[in-house]
Design brief:
The chain has helices at about 25-40, 70-80, 100-105, 115-120, 130-135, 155-160, 185-190, 235-255, and strands at about 45, 55-60, 85-90, 110, 125-130, 165-170, 180, 200, 215-220. With about 270 residues, it is of the alpha/beta class. It has a domain at about 45-175 and about 215-255. A 7-stranded mixed sheet has the order 1-9-6-2-5-3-4, with helices on both faces. Strand 3, helix 3 (about 100-105) and strand 4 form a beta-alpha-beta unit. The longest helix is centred in the C-terminal third of the chain and has 25 residues, at about 235-255. The two termini are about 30 Å apart.
């Protein structure tokens, strides 16, 4: 739950907001108000936030269908650390007029190696969901699974820049909705890379997410090997190894969090 109005809480010093972002803009205030209500609805907590290092860092998250669990994490980091993470978004978010401007105004950046490098060079926290919509479309039977098989861009970015990574898992976000197995969903995604999920929550039409308790558990930082991007095979092998380590850590965080409403900090190496 947000403690923004707690008179006993000392606000952390804020790092400068990049690119003219204004946390006091009307749009931001509406978003924060909605997220505050969601924090309360889901008794939201973050464990292991102390693992986020000073300076640049890639925060790697699992991707649920609801997605807003990631925004709860980003808001909590801002409230507790005074640092506003920037999210790397799918290119489709930036191809639709109106939606592109909305995502950008909320701090979203087109997911690319160049965009990620620029943010990390500025010493920022960068949030990335490697599984993307493919992971979000997992069916009820596939919940809590990591779907990063061919998604190595985040590992490549970490090795190129030397930025540490922190895995942030929210397994119960997969319980907000049940995604129904559908040939139509698979065909549309495979052909057009567009989401057309059939899902059930609660309330009218099953559109309301279930009021399940949500929490993120953060791993200790994972540091990439020092490898030059020009080293070809050595660089690619380093990316593959880092991708494997991160996948294993995220898998364990998801498994350890299943079936619990509140979980202590998970230690990872």
């Amino acid at each position: 739950m947000s403690k923004r109005n707690d008179p006993n809480k000392t606000a952390p010093p804020l790092e400068p907001l990049p690119d003219g972002l204004d946390m006091h803009s009307p749009l931001m205030q509406v978003l924060v108000s909605v997220l505050d209500k969601l924090q309360s609805r889901h008794s939201y907590q973050v464990h292991g936030i102390e693992h986020i290092p000073k300076g640049r860092c890639l925060i790697v998250v699992n991707h649920s269908l609801a997605t807003y669990d990631v925004m709860l994490l980003m808001l909590t980091i801002f409230e507790r650390l005074g640092r506003l993470p920037r999210g790397l978004g799918d290119r489709r978010l930036f191809q639709l007029p109106g939606l592109s401007q909305l995502v950008s105004s909320l701090g979203g950046v087109l997911a690319s190696q160049g965009g990620g490098e620029r943010l990390l060079e500025d010493g920022l926290l960068v949030v990335v969901a490697p599984g993307g919509m493919k992971e979000a479309l997992r069916t009820k039977e596939q919940r809590y699974q990591v779907r990063w098989e061919d998604r190595k861009g985040f590992a490549r970015l970490a090795v190129r820049t030397g930025a540490p990574l922190v895995m942030a898992a929210c397994p119960k976000a997969d319980d907000l909705y049940d995604v129904v197995d559908s040939d139509l969903t698979r065909r549309v995604y495979d052909q057009f890379r567009l989401p057309l999920p059939l899902f059930r929550g609660v309330g009218p039409g099953g559109l309301i997410p279930r009021p399940v308790p949500l929490s993120h558990t953060l791993s200790k930082p994972i540091y990439p090997p020092a490898v030059d991007a020009d080293e070809g095979t050595i660089f690619n092998n380093a990316v593959d190894k880092l991708h494997g380590v991160c996948t294993e850590v995220m898998t364990e965080l998801l498994r350890s969090g299943v079936g619990t409403e509140s979980k202590g900090t998970t230690e990872s190496t």
